[in-house]
UniProtKB/TrEMBL annotation:
Superkingdom to which the source organism belongs: Bacteria
Pfam families in the cross-refs: PolyA_pol, PolyA_pol_RNAbd
Annotated source species: Litchfieldella rifensis
Residues annotated as domain tRNA nucleotidyltransferase/poly(A) polymerase RNA and SrmB- binding: 159-221
Record's keyword terms, sorted: ATP-binding, Magnesium, Metal-binding, Nucleotide-binding, Nucleotidyltransferase, RNA repair, RNA-binding, Transferase, tRNA processing
Lineage: Bacteria, Pseudomonadati, Pseudomonadota, Gammaproteobacteria, Oceanospirillales
Single GO MF annotation: nucleotidyltransferase activity
Cofactor: Mg(2+)
Protein name, entry field: Polynucleotide adenylyltransferase
Keyword Nucleotidyltransferase attached: yes
Domain (Poly A polymerase head) ranges: 14-132
Family: Belongs to the tRNA nucleotidyltransferase/poly(A) polymerase family.
Keyword Nucleotide-binding: yes
Length: 382
């Protein structure tokens, strides 16, 4: 805790939120957040704390760089998660500060001796494995729908569930249209975090169950069967050390048509790296489906390699072939051979033979296709 820190002498300081929750769950704690009761911004600056809060008074400890926020309350005054008036004052109590939080398990605090302060029953809900809202004010912030779903994605393996009364409020937020006021960046930020949790499928199921998915990501929600199939793929990823959170998003979206995937990406203002990998994975899925239908040929394999920009971005090929191996190991073997042979056709060789301009490009494509056909014919012969 914070005993012995001269900068904190005389301050009423509590560790709050996620650090308290996770330490009591036996979950890793990476950051501590602190609330200071009864102090002013001038008090904090006089002790050497650096102000960093834009919308409310938050300070960084000059040595540990942990965040210390002055106790505050919030009052709804507009739409969306930003529509709040913040009131920070030395008269705000710890209980009032904790009351503004979303879930009871996030509304616990510990004093500097480690004693629990739990006015809203968070410890009981931890034991009961329930995600329960602190107060009816839950409905004032639509982002809490996504946060609750994300916590379910994190803790589902521990047996957590969303309390029925909290689920009802999530449905109320979806039905009332408040979710439409969430900005794309915040929706994506929560979704990206959820993709990194142990059970990301729980996030999307929770959003689907309360009606939020149909509002925020309708392309994923349009068919329950397709959604369940997509969620089943989230743990089937290529064997590589790459960006597995991106792979989860790509697998989630690989069944969507190009227009659907583009609309979804634009709505969420998806980072380019995610959009590109989703496109490559969709192309790979189509190739695998054509093989399953008995329609695979050299032209389709070459179009796939062209589509994923394999000739300039060769590092893309092996992970995508690894992805194919999850569904069709023999096809993955054929693709690996086709790629190996086609990659041996080098432009500089053709330049040495006198090919230039359009003739060079045409001959390069022809010989690569020839190499791919040879690989597929070798497969047929086996």
């Amino acid at each position: 805790m914070t005993q012995g820190d001269p900068r904190l002498v005389g301050l009423e300081v509590y560790r709050v939120g996620g650090a308290v929750r996770d330490s009591r769950l036996g979950w890793p704690v990476y950051d501590n957040d602190w609330v200071v009761v009864g102090a002013t911004p001038a008090d904090m600056r006089a002790r050497g704390f650096k102000p960093v809060g834009r919308d409310f008074p938050v300070f960084l400890h000059p040595e540990t760089h942990e965040e210390y926020a002055l106790a505050r309350t919030e009052r709804k005054q507009g739409h969306g998660y930003t529509g709040f008036a913040v009131y920070a004052n030395p008269q705000v109590t710890l209980e009032e500060d904790l009351a503004r939080r979303d879930l009871t398990i996030n509304a616990m605090a510990e004093d500097r001796a480690g004693h629990l302060v739990d006015p809203y029953g968070g410890a009981h809900d931890l034991e009961s494995r329930l995600l329960r809202h602190v107060s009816p004010a839950f409905v004032e912030d639509p982002l809490r729908v996504l946060r609750t779903a994300r916590f379910l994605a994190r803790y589902q393996s521990l047996g957590f569930a969303i309390a029925e009364e909290t689920r009802a409020l999530m449905c109320q937020l979806a039905e009332g249209g408040e979710l439409t006021h969430l900005v794309a960046e915040r929706v994506w930020a929560e979704t990206e975090k959820a993709l990194g949790e142990p059970h990301p499928e729980a996030y999307f199921r929770a959003l689907s169950d309360c009606g939020a998915l149909a509002i925020l990501m309708p392309e994923l929600a349009c068919n329950g069967g397709r959604l369940e199939a997509a969620l089943a793929r989230l743990h089937r990823l290529p064997e590589e050390d790459g960006p597995w959170v991106r792979w989860r998003w790509a697998r989630l979206c690989e069944h969507l048509g190009d227009d659907e995937r583009l609309r979804l990406g634009e709505r969420l203002r998806l980072p380019r790296a995610y959009a590109e990998l989703a496109h490559q994975t969709a192309l790979t899925r189509r190739l695998w489906l054509s093989a399953r239908a008995g329609e695979l040929d050299g032209a389709r394999v070459q179009a796939w390699l062209d589509g994923i920009d394999a000739w300039r971005r060769s590092e893309r090929v092996t992970p995508l072939i690894s992805l194919v191996s999850l569904e069709a190991p023999s096809l993955a073997t054929d693709l690996a051979l086709a790629w190996r042979l086609a990659a041996q056709v080098m432009p500089r060789t053709l330049l040495g033979e006198g090919f230039k301009g359009k003739a060079l490009g045409a001959e390069l494509s022809r010989r690569r296709r020839e190499a791919i056909d040879a690989a597929l014919n070798d497969s047929d012969a086996r």
